[in-house]
Amino acid sequence: MELTERFEWRGRQIAWGRAGDGPAVVFCHGTPFSSVLWQPFAEALSRDFTVYLWDMPGYGRSSKHAEHPVDFGAQADAFAALLAHWGLDRPHVVAHDFGGAVSLRTHLILGVGYASLMLVDVVAIPPSGSPFFRFVQDHPDVLGQLPAYIHIAIVRAYIQGASHRGLRDDDLDALVQPWTGEEGQPAFYRQIAHYDERFLEENEEALGRIAIPVRILWGSCDAWIPTEIGRRLQGLIPAAELSLIDAAGHLVHHDAPVSLMDEIRAWLTVR
């Protein structure tokens, strides 16, 4: 499943793709990832659902212009516009990492309706951000000028740390590739520099208003966002369900793909 379509929005190009037939399911990726993470899951589900993949502006195959903000607010605005462009009414949404905050803001603040929401190891409520994040936020321009081989080594080590079991070289290459080159390298540090936790605070204040079915999945060994955050998020969302996936880290897509696929299909089948 390739992102062969382009949506022009506020000077940006948003790459997206669609496949299959049936109820609409939209996947949202996080940072520093892209729709590549969700591709095999979307392909498998396309037998029974119409699946949508997209790369957020500043990520993957979408445009990475330096003058465009890539914070939670901008991404939620882009997501709302893209859903309207697709003409979707209450799709199912499955989100990972940063995509959790984006999909929650789109629903809670912008008023876009969903049929259901599945949140997988998400950035959604404060506190968030690692020491690496804070360092980059203090030095984004300097790091953007690092020699390419040093930058690539940093990004590879950073992304590898999101997996509990370790990533194969070809999987790691696919996740690192969008952040290479003259456009990708500064974009990697820019998306961290634009990270603003106030959007998470706004989300947290509104979580009690959620009235749609919500399922939360969390890798039991997530070293980026501890399971305690998942449990606290469950407590803030009325009637939300939470399941931990054994022996999986933040990149549960690679650590436990069969368990994740089973959870997604079971959740969507009963909606």
UniProtKB/TrEMBL annotation:
SUPFAM superfamilies: alpha/beta-Hydrolases. GO terms for cellular component: membrane. One of its GO terms (biological process) is acylglycerol catabolic process. Residues 25-257 form the AB hydrolase-1 domain. InterPro entries: AB_hydrolase_1, AB_hydrolase_fold, AB_hydrolase_sf. One of its GO terms (molecular function) is monoacylglycerol lipase activity. This is Pimeloyl-ACP methyl ester carboxylesterase. It comes from Nonomuraea jabiensis. The lineage of its organism: Bacteria, Bacillati, Actinomycetota, Actinomycetes, Streptosporangiales.
